[in-house]
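Example record

One chain of 74 residues, shown exactly as stored in the release files.
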Amino acid sequence: SQPGRTRLGVGVSNSREEYAVMGVYFGTQGSRCDDQISALKKLWMEKTVAFSGEFHTLDKQGINPLPVQLPIPM
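Predicted structure tokens for this chain:
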């Protein structure tokens, strides 16, 4: 790793039990992950985010500080 860099690993569960506990349909795990990646990209690029995806909604949310390197490679 280089200084000032963070590595993020994302995994999609294939445990039907985990989805049942969360009360969500197991067959949407890929679409949910895509939705979350879209939200993350906006959060990393904009000070204040309004995002409305298929599964997730953000209203006037943000992170501080924003990353130095923009855009974040994915």
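Notes: Helices lie at 16-22, 29-45.
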